[in-house]
Amino acid sequence: MALTFLRGIQLNPSMLYPSSYFARKHGVLYCCMRSAQTQTATQEKEQTKLKVSTQSQPKAVDKFLKDFEAVIGIETHVQLSTLTKAFCSCPYNYGSPPNTSVCPVCMGLPGALPVLNSKVIESAVRVGLALNCKLSLNSKFDRKQYFYPDLPKGYQISQFDIPIASGGYLDVDLPLEYGGGHRKFGITRVHMEEDAGKLLHTDGGSYSQVDLNRAGVPLLEIVSEPDMTTGIEAAEYAAELQRLVRYLGVGNGNMQEGSLRCDVNISVRPIGQLEFGTKVEIKNLNSFSSMSRAIDYEISRQVELHNQGQIDQIVQETRLWEEGAQKTVTMRKKEGLADYRYFPEPDLPGVSLTEEYVNSIRESLPELPEDKRRRYEKMGLSMQDVLFLANDINIADFFDTTTAGGADIKLAANWIMGDIAAYMKNEKVNINEIKLTPQELGELIASIKDETISGKIGKEILFELIAKGGTVKGLIKEKDLVQIVDTVEIEKMVDKVIADSPKQLEQYRGGKTKLQGYFAGQVMKESKGKANPKLLNKILLEKLNAKS
Amino acid sequence: MGSISALHYLKPTRTANGTSLFNFSKNRISQLPVAFRSYTVKSSALEPPDVPRLAETARISLNPQEIEEFAPKIRQVIDWFGQLQAVDLQSIEPAIRADTEGDNLRGDVPEKFDNREELISAVPSFEDPYIKVPKVLNKE
């Protein structure tokens, strides 16, 4: 892993644009953001080290950017993991053969009428509440008209002037590699709408291909306030939204599959200026790291244009992030605001929520990521532990069940973040796929704590439990692993080893005290690893130093 | 053409001072709490329809003769809205939707449409398994 990081740092600059201070900055971001999603305890340590070694470099960028500030807002589309589409009963499964999950409603055939899936409202209310929004007890759907081949009806059913939820906020903890810190980002609105189909462009062909399986799949569009100022803040906002929808169980939040899509609006202005600069939209961001890098690239690009007196070159447009070239390129220029000719969707009734309904959903909400992090913090865990454990709902559940059984909190965190995380990473499995149960992890921790087994043997058992399952008690018994804490028994073994190694003994007593390690190893071997190390060393020292 | 409701051809007509007649201007609306939305009655003297532009937004090609034919028809519809605009609503609480009867929701239970073949056979250009369309790269 460390090697990969280093390679990232070394290769990146050459792929980037000429100014070397940009390149370095993005190299740093690149190596750090990669791990935002797949952290392991060891990885984090490496990052911290790397951070230190590269810390001096961003200064050039800071100096370059210091007279400017960026204003960033994010529009996120969250695909809901309902079994059926928003307005028809077609099942939706990602990866189904093209055009197999279609019906007259989602293909936009004349006369077909939409009927709203109740689960869509439930999901919207859950997300709205979790984002601390005010809910509209009465809202409605509207038609947004535009012509594009992935939209069979010629309009998208969406919500326009009255979104189901608005005026909320999201709490975010920034990664420690960037100095950590807590942020609160405003949420402008959350509304329900339908997805369009998928459009594939054939290479060099004269036509495009459409798959309508995704047409009509429910989405929540979440619009943030323009509260973010850096790529890291934006990426962490998106990561927190992903966590939130996963905690809530409303969506899988998978960016690669397009279940979580972020469009970023970004402008730059001289510090002190009240009005916003011209905003540019960036699309095609399919990971948090590309988001962060795209934003920082775009900030640099816009600041450079400011500094060169070419502000007029910053135009309102949509730019695409090109992963290969590590830069943004113009996709289309906006010529005035698109006229979507919104009007209330006549085929659907209004959406009304009762206070009772909203309250019942409020009560059914799980502990949210922010609450979990604050609780873990109060339990005495370090911020690094807190962020790791709360990052993945499954890992958090595993940890919670382990500690609920009475296991030591810090030890449980260490095992999960250390050996268990390393195993999962190597074997590419998630915590629900390993055979170890939280109960047995608790049992293992307790067995080490009460000295039934040594920590070393505990580690051996752990890998067996992870890979094959079974119980700690069963394995200890089966393998006869109970730690030897009987002084007499240990003395016997020490005596034997000393008697068997007269040469080493002589050297030791001649001043080569480093040989204590050799003796300790021999005794441990003799005990088949079961001797209590503390007792062993105590007795060994006494005996070695006894007579001269 | 005739089967499509004339409503579709309406664009939010601008009044003399530049505000939108139907209050659909995104920025303004999103900043106003629902209860305070302005429902002021506007004059019934509305601008004549810009038929060529309406046709363009609906992606319909009309020849000059058709444009001439449609103009008075659309004008009639707009005038009808003008009549609606004249109704005094000062004391009426705005309604979001005309209906108030129930939500008519559906459970999240999958059901496959069982006549896919016919659906697909109605697609003008289908090359299994995709629908074939002219090459498109950019919206608008």
UniProtKB/TrEMBL annotation, chain A:
It comes from the Eukaryota. It catalyses: L-glutamyl-tRNA(Gln) + L-glutamine + ATP + H2O = L-glutaminyl-tRNA(Gln) + L-glutamate + ADP + phosphate + H(+); L-aspartyl-tRNA(Asn) + L-glutamine + ATP + H2O = L-asparaginyl-tRNA(Asn) + L-glutamate + ADP + phosphate + 2 H(+). SUPFAM superfamilies: GatB/YqeY motif (SSF89095), Glutamine synthetase/guanido kinase (SSF55931). Keywords: ATP-binding, Chloroplast, Ligase, Mitochondrion, Nucleotide-binding, Plastid, Protein biosynthesis. Allows the formation of correctly charged Gln-tRNA(Gln) through the transamidation of misacylated Glu-tRNA(Gln) in chloroplasts and mitochondria. The reaction takes place in the presence of glutamine and ATP through an activated gamma-phospho-Glu-tRNA(Gln). This is Glutamyl-tRNA(Gln) amidotransferase subunit B, chloroplastic/mitochondrial. It is found in: Mitochondrion; Plastid, Chloroplast. Its main location: mitochondrion. Residues 397-544 form the Asn/Gln amidotransferase domain. Subunit of the heterotrimeric GatCAB amidotransferase (AdT) complex, composed of A, B and C subunits. Its EC number is 6.3.5.-. Belongs to the GatB/GatE family. GatB subfamily. Gene3D superfamilies: 1.10.10.410, GatB domain, N-terminal subdomain (1.10.150.380). It is an enzyme of class 6 (ligase). HAMAP family: GatB.
From TrEMBL, chain B:
Pfam families: GatC. InterPro entries: Asp/Glu-ADT_sf_sub_c (IPR036113), GatC (IPR003837). It catalyses: L-glutamyl-tRNA(Gln) + L-glutamine + ATP + H2O = L-glutaminyl-tRNA(Gln) + L-glutamate + ADP + phosphate + H(+). Keywords: ATP-binding, Chloroplast, Ligase, Mitochondrion, Nucleotide-binding, Plastid, Protein biosynthesis. Its main location: mitochondrion. Its EC number is 6.3.5.-. It is found in: Mitochondrion; Plastid, Chloroplast. It is an enzyme of class 6 (ligase). The keyword Secreted does not apply. Allows the formation of correctly charged Gln-tRNA(Gln) through the transamidation of misacylated Glu-tRNA(Gln) in chloroplasts and mitochondria. The reaction takes place in the presence of glutamine and ATP through an activated gamma-phospho-Glu-tRNA(Gln). PANTHER family: GLUTAMYL-TRNA(GLN) AMIDOTRANSFERASE SUBUNIT C, MITOCHONDRIAL. Belongs to the GatC family. Subunit of the heterotrimeric GatCAB amidotransferase (AdT) complex, composed of A, B and C subunits. This is Glutamyl-tRNA(Gln) amidotransferase subunit C, chloroplastic/mitochondrial. The gene is LOC107024193.
